[in-house]
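A sample follows:
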Amino acid sequence: MRYDCDIVVIGAGPGGSMAAKYAALGGLNVIMIEKKAEIGAPLRCAEGVSKKWLAEIGVTPDPKWICADMAGATIRSPGGFTFQLDESKAGAEVGYVLERHMFDKALAEQAAAAGAKIMMRTGCTGVIRDKGKLVGVKARTMDGEIEIYAKCVVAADGFESQVARWAGVDTTLDAKDIDTCIQYRMANIDIDPKYCEFVIGSEAPGGYIWIFPKGERIANVGIGVQVAKCRHGADPKYYLDKFVAKDPRLRNGQILEIVGGGVSTCPGLEEAIADNLVIVGDAARIIDPITGGGIAHACRTGMYAGKVLAECAKKNDFSKSALKPYEKMWRDRMEDKLYLNWMAKERFATLPDDVLDDLVKIMGNSDIGEVNVHNLLTAIKAKYPKVVEGFEDLI
């Protein structure tokens, strides 16, 4: 069976839904396909987001998809030293813990309201070319094979993105730019329900452990470990189980759900466009390299893509050259911070536990003002100049 449209979006996550919404609002005929049976599930996300960017993408906070409103966050060093920050210090970084499956559905509902057609249980199996030109995708539905012809393809198919690769874009990652993750949703635990917690150091080599509250005595407890530092196939589970077993707040907890997956920790693809192709969110590696957070980035890049596609349609030109405004929009908004955070991630991953203890002490004793990577590195530079050696110009 053949379908024809202006834009086909692969993946109904935040990036895909935002691209579909804004392209449809621009008057384009949009089809968004999703391989899963339910948008937003199964979950592979810690579900933490900051607050202020929601207004930027035109989304109003809704109690339906906000599980917990955080007062702040605690950073814990290997030696148990802590630095607690609230909204006065963390600024835009303090936020919500979501019910992610409800959040994703809400964005998809907005795309549908704007006029996008959504096709569930429809997995992309390849791209279609005509005389070398990308003209659509092949997909498998519950009813059989289909072809969707479009003027432009939006690859929003996440970390494992195959669409971009099928279309000829190199999405290869170095092992040091991948974290392998596992997360438990735990009940019957004794945590502060108003503060997210981040544990750094050798307990999570090259990554960190997180505790994101989802109400009284329940939280997402997870870990990311840099693939380059893994020595066995189940390293993340080994480290997380070890952490849970020794933490008195967690050791009597019960696991309600287990999820796992990978996340990229590089500063984005060299190019997120090609002729008749736009790549958004995780598929474009546009994820914060320090936190692994990608929801805000996916929403922004999806919105930018949809708006640019609407402009391209006016001239019926979806060439790489015509799509360049998308590259400029996301890079102007995010690239500098992504690159700085990537450089910081590279350096922090090499630091021994005693230095990380000292860095957390510095955070607590310095008048940093708003806590962000730039200001933290500036404070660290005074005592540990070698930590920032090589990227002082970015500070």
